[in-house]
Backbone:
């Protein structure tokens, strides 16, 4: 009997994405109802917008799931150029919200260039590393060109400022370089240098440095830099084992800032308790497992690196967001993938999932399946 190629997408990954996106829509409705009524006199304002973005995101997922991922190889250079143009534009004409310029208003939609940059940088890195092959172990002719581009994107995102996205982007590309065969010693030296530079940069912005270190002792300045962490911990702690019930959060009543975006996990933990929050963490762990499994079974190096990059980016975002909500890492302002309110972040996550699903459709058939296919 002839062996047939695997053509179905990874159903486990698809199911996880649908569950997380659906849960996100429910949590946005619950978390944003108060601020929606206060700001827009409509408790469903943010929910309706998120529902529209989710619909567009589902369409984007379906499209990217059915478009051969090799098409993106040709878009690597144009994509990174567009990303840099947008990063420069946002510093010039971007909307300033909370002291940061991260969005370009398009009237009906606020575009976040750093979200576009994540996809463009991961794709560019996958193409570059796959093309270089074993030459990626060379410092100057292999590593240096991609590091210059990464440093440029990192620096422009820091200027917004957006420490969380910049850190996630750098960590993702570093892991892709490691997966692509780069010399570990080079990467460790670069990581130490980047950490030292970021530390010195943060010291230059005294208020932001206090905000970054507030998670170590938020009660040292409970009314200012420690406020967000304290209120988030109160939300998480109030949930107990089973939660206070969906829609019954108290911290969303103007206590916890950004409760429908950056701190939505804290509201989720408050309303659904340890069991609900733990289930969400398990879903992200499973998502990472399926993403890396897809990378291992990809038919070519480019597909493997692309899957590793997209999965790592989603993993770092989830890790940072949950870490912020639980007071484990500094406040970074990074959304929870598929769950937090926001059009750019949601559609970027859905597009990433769609590409992963397309790679899974073209992946190598596992040995066990091959053996089953050979049986008469």
Residues:
């Amino acid at each position: 009997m002839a062996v047939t190629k695997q053509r179905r997408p990874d159903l486990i990954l698809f199911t996880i994405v649908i569950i997380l996106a659906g849960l996100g829509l429910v949590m946005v409705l619950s978390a944003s109802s108060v601020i929606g009524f206060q700001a827009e006199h409509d408790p469903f304002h943010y929910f309706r917008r998120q529902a529209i973005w989710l619909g567009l995101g589902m369409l984007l997922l379906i499209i990217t799931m059915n478009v051969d991922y090799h098409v993106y190889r040709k878009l690597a250079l144009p994509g990174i150029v567009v990303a840099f143009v947008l990063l420069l534009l946002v510093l010039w004409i971007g909307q300033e919200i909370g002291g940061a310029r991260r969005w370009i208003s398009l009237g009906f939609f606020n575009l976040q260039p750093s979200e576009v940059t994540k996809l463009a940088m991961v794709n560019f890195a996958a193409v570059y590393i796959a093309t270089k092959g074993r030459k990626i172990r060379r410092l100057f002719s292999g590593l240096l060109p991609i590091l210059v581009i990464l440093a440029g994107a990192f620096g422009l995102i820091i200027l917004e400022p957006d420490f969380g996205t910049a850190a996630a982007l750098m960590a993702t590309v570093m892991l892709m370089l490691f997966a692509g065969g780069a010399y570990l010693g080079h990467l460790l030296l670069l990581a130490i240098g980047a950490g030292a530079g970021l530390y010195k940069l943060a010291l230059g912005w005294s208020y932001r440095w206090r905000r970054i270190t507030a998670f170590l002792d938020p009660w040292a300045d409970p009314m200012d830099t420690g406020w967000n962490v304290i209120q988030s911990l109160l939300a998480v702690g109030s949930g107990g084992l089973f939660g206070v019930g969906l829609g019954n959060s108290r911290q969303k009543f103007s206590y916890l800032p950004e409760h429908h975006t950056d701190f939505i996990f804290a509201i989720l933990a408050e309303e659904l308790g340890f069991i609900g929050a733990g289930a969400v963490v398990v879903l992200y762990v499973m998502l990472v497992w399926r993403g890396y499994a897809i990378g291992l079974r990809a038919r070519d190096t480019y597909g493997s690196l692309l899957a590793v990059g997209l999965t790592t980016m989603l993993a770092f975002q989830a890790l940072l967001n949950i870490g912020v909500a639980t007071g484990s890492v500094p406040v970074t302002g990074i959304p929870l993938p598929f769950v937090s309110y926001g059009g750019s972040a949601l559609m970027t996550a859905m597009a990433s999932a769609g590409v992963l699903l397309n790679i899974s459709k073209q992946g190598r058939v596992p040995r066990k399946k091959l053996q089953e296919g050979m049986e008469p």
Observations:
- DSSP finds 13 helices and three strands in the chain.
